[in-house]
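Q: What residues go here?
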């Protein structure tokens, strides 16, 4: 993607040079005149668009998939630990210091830890929804700022040519 962007920038610079020369040679020729400020503004605009697309269509879906996978794994782990604890119930009557009781207590702690991790994942999903909306709005504002800068650069270039 970057080589294509670089090539398009270089192409527009070359076209600009030819357009400026043609405009200087014949005042009646109408062409697109580009300044360095306009090129910078257009570059900033394209970068802001790319950043917004990258965030919306790559970063956010990737993070959601990751959280969904973690959630599924934690839920499966919880099911296994609960089954183990249920299976240990008949053997817990034997004694206070039996290996079965120790294993059951270990599984009970692992279950508690996994349930807490699942809750954290759910909380992170909710926070991601809130943050993604706000972050998307920030990227949209960056895009708007870049578009405004580009429009102002075009207007300034047109005014400088009219003088």
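A:
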């Amino acid at each position: 993607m970057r080589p294509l962007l670089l090539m398009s920038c270089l192409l527009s610079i070359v076209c600009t040079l030819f357009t400026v020369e043609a405009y200087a040679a014949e005042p009646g020729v109408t062409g697109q005149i580009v300044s360095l400020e306009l090129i910078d503004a257009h570059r900033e605009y394209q970068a802001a668009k790319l950043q917004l697309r990258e965030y919306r269509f790559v970063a956010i879906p990737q993070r959601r998939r990751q959280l969904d996978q973690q959630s599924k794994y934690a839920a499966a782990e919880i099911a296994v630990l609960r089954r183990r604890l249920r299976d240990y119930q008949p053997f817990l009557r034997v004694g206070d210091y039996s290996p079965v009781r120790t294993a059951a207590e270990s599984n009970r702690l692992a279950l508690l830890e996994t349930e807490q991790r699942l809750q954290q994942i759910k909380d992170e999903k909710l926070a991601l929804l809130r943050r993604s909306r706000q972050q998307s709005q920030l990227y949209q504002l960056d895009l708007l700022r870049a578009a405004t800068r580009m429009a102002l650069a075009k207007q300034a270039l047109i005014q400088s040519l009219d003088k």
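A: Context that may help when evaluating the design: Residues 4-11, 13-31 have pLDDT under 50 and may be disordered. The longest helix spans residues 99-162.
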